Amino acid sequence: MKKIALFAIIALTASCITATAQNKKGMKKVLFVLTSHSELGNTGEKTGFWIEEFAAPYYELADKGVIIDIASPLGGQPPIDPKSSDPSSATEDTKRFDKDTELQAKLSKTHKLADVKQADYDAVFYPGGHGPLWDLATDATSSALIESFYTNNKPVAFVCHSPAVLKNVKVNGEFLVKGKKVTGFSNTEEEAVGLTNVVPFLLEDALQANGATYSKIGDWQPYAVEDGLLITGQNPASSKLVAEKLLNQLNSKK
């Protein structure tokens, strides 16, 4: 009887391990790419990524079973825009992040962007903040990665300032955004935060200069645009909308 019970336990354990492995194999995997840039131009102030634009999409996807890895140009701890930690910027997702020691530990050990491969993921998502305007917008590794995702029929998603990373991305010799419907942090929103003359370029203008069909709604209102594999959101309030559209695309790909 003892031997039978032992065999039953072994069989059950093996079955559970196999089921877990199969479940993981079927799970979608998304790469998050964050900025490594911390200086807000010549102001002497700090910048980085915006917590809401990271936390809201992260939890929206992770809570639905999506596996998420995080990368940045330099690897390690990416800089957080201090203004996004202010109580006035708090949301339910940022409050959850503030208590999430496991995610904070994961965030402190981001992969180097040069070490990640498109083939390992089903989609890529770029949170915003002003930091990407200085590093990821001109990062050749980032541009090549986005092109690789796109040409391999995988969704590419961006929110707020992060559509800036599309500035130099080309597919078949043309800007990826050319003729595409997009949105992103608007000129009026940049003016409202007093950084029009600080940022290296205005996102709205840059997207239009590359041939995109740019649209927006009222400042700080949730708004996301989907054009095929390309998903963009206007501002921090649009973060979850972008994640929802991304999740729908992931679920539609079996």
UniProtKB/TrEMBL annotation:
Alphabetical list of InterPro entries matching this protein: Class_I_gatase-like, DJ-1/PfpI, Prot/Nucl_acid_deglycase
Domain DJ-1/PfpI span(s) in chain numbering: 53-248
A GO biological process held by the record: proteolysis
Highest taxon of the lineage: Bacteria
PROSITE patterns: PROKAR_LIPOPROTEIN
A GO CC annotation given for this chain: cytoplasm
A matching Pfam family: DJ-1_PfpI
Membrane spanning residue stretches: none
Annotated signal sequence range: 1-21
Family: Belongs to the peptidase C56 family. HSP31-like subfamily.
Record's keyword terms, sorted: Hydrolase, Lyase, Protease, Signal, Stress response
Record keyword Signal present: yes
Protein name: Putative intracellular protease/amidase
GO molecular function, one term: peptidase activity
CDD domains documented for this protein: GATase1_Hsp31_like (cd03141)
Sequence segments annotated as region (Disordered): 76-97
